[in-house]
Amino acid sequence: MPAPKDGISDFCAMLRLCVEQALGGRLEPDVAENVADGAAYAFIGAFGGTCLYIPKSAPGELERRNREIYRAWISAPEHDHPDTLRKLIARHALSENQIYKIIRTERQRRIRAKQASESEVQEWRHNAA
Fold first, then answer.
1. What is the dihedral of CA 51, 8, 54, 85, to 10 degrees?
2. Do 39 and 65 fall into the same domain?
3. d(CA 96, CA 124)
4. Whose C-alpha in 23, 83, 94, 114 is 20 to 30 A from the C-alpha of 100?
5. At 7, phi and psi to the nearest 5?
6. Rounded distance, CA 10 to CA 1, Å?
7. How is 27-78 classified by DSSP, letter by letter?
8. Is 54 a domain residue?
9. Does 52 fall in a domain?
10. Which residues, other chains included, contact 20 with Cβ-Cβ below 8 Å and sequence gap of 6+?
11. Rounded to whole angstroms, how far apart are CA atoms 97 and 69?
12. In this predicted structure, which of 6-10, 24-28, 29-33, 59-63 has the lowest mean pLDDT?
């Protein structure tokens, strides 16, 4: 897609391109381009002149990534942890400390969830008695 010649910023040009690609195949190319233009201009109208933080990942994506890291870690043989760590660092572009923090946090979350379910069973038994 050629860059627009009407002064739209590089960011909005990328937004336009992303919208057009997301619509790809579902609409005729010229219709998709018009929708993408409309989305870019609506974005400019709504947020033009403001500072806007855009996170790197969608909501829920970090939780999915962290579960994936934890599963890879616990499924690896213990003697293979250094190699697993290197692979996780490379795959997710994280530091060693970040990987270890994710593993520790996921482990603690799972322990708390298990303790909560065990306390529910104990409460149910107490109420049934």
1. -130
2. no
3. 42
4. 114
5. 85, 10
6. 13
7. B-HHHHHHHHHHHHHHHHHHHTTS-----SS-TTHHHHHHHHHHHHHHHS-G
8. no
9. no
10. 1, 32, 33, 35, 36
11. 13
12. 6-10
Tokens 């999915």 sit at which residue?
64
pLDDT tens digits for range 75-129: 998 888 899 999 999 999 999 999 999 999 999 998 888 887 776 766 766 676 5
Domain that holds residue 21: 10-47
CB 69, CB 92: distance < 8 Å = yes
Q: Structure tokens of 18?
A: 């992303």
Token pair listed for 48: 């033009």
Whether residues 18 and 70 fall in one domain: no
DSSP 3-state assignment of 93?
Answer: coil
Residue 121 sits in the same domain as residue 67: yes
